[in-house]
Amino acid sequence: MIDLHYSATPNGQKIAIMLEEIGAPYRVLPYDIFNGDQLTEAFGRINPNHKLPAIVDHDPASDGEPVTVFESGAILQYLAEKDGRFLAASGAARAATLSWLTWQVAGLGPMGGQASHFLRYAPAGQDYAVERYTKEVTRLLTVLERRLEKSAYVAGDDYTIADMAIWPGRASAFIMGMGLDDWPATRDWFERIRERPAVARATGREDLKAPAKYIGRHQTLDAREWSNMFGDANHAAVKGD
Fold first, then answer.
1. Please, what sign has the CA dihedral across residues 173, 188, 102, 62?
2. pTM for this one?
3. Does residue 41 sit in helix, strand or coil?
4. How far apart are CA 74 and CA 52, in angstroms?
5. 137, exposed or middle or buried, with CB in 10 Å at 0-12, 13-18, 19+?
6. 119 vs 70: CA distance, rounded Å
């Protein structure tokens, strides 16, 4: 059994998709990040960074003590290596998958997150930040589009953890009204993945669905929610205050 410490964000959804793809038994432990559920001392022992998702594998391949993994890219790689699927063992295919996985976790994911922050949560008047991050996301989406014009999946001919890492963010953008019409190759890839049974299961489970506050185009947070997400409470958790 794997415990999935989960919030219904694209990062969490990546891991739910992977767990469904490999057929691993897992238990969803939901966190309300606006409520600050992730800021507890107990969760800090699982992820010192106090961010979701994280997993605890109670049946590791080593048959030893439970294994804890945090950061979505690390979790995807850990599960792929344990199961022996969706990441080649060596060679060019493995290098391509890890390159595109890292591209997502170091580029598209963070830049998309910053664009989302300034569009959805920041006070009015953040024109420079909005332009800066939306332009960079557009550039990165162009990189993705050019890749998918030449390749069925981002790492080559096979579906891998790199696709799982990228797909939920595109799904989230689609839900928030940021269409895929300008990216025809990405749209075709998106639809191909959406039709996978494991993806349908992960996106259809009630305990994995995102509440409205996670997906609305513009959000207003109260003082406590802001503190938990971006302010004093968020910072105090890593200090142990």
1. positive
2. 0.94
3. helix
4. 12
5. buried
6. 27
Question: What pLDDT, in 10s, does the model give residues 189-239?
Answer: 999 999 999 999 999 888 887 766 666 667 788 999 989 999 999 999 999
Calculate the alpha carbon distances from 82 to 24, 46, 62, 76, 132 in Å: 11, 20, 10, 10, 39
Q: Name the β-bridge partners of 67.
A: 57
Question: Which residues contact residue 122 at a Cβ distance below 8 angstroms, ignoring those fewer than 6 apart?
Answer: 129
Q: Alpha helix (H) ranges present in 177-231?
A: 184-194, 197-204, 212-215, 223-229
Strand partners, 123: none
- Range among 82-86, 111-115, 169-173 with highest mean pLDDT value: 82-86
Handedness of CA 177, 134, 9, 97 (dihedral sign): positive
Strand partners, 28: 4
The residue type found at 25 is: P
Mean pLDDT of 111-132: 90
Minimal CA–CA distance to 104: which of 31, 170, 195, 196?
170
Beta bridge partners of 3: 27, 56
Strand 54-57 to strand 2-6: parallel, antiparallel, or no bridges (unpaired)?
A: antiparallel
Residue 63 to residue 223: CA distance in whole angstroms: 45
Is residue 161 within 8 A of residue 99, CB to CB? The reply is no
CA distance 88 to 66: 25
Which residue reads 């800066």 in tokens?
132
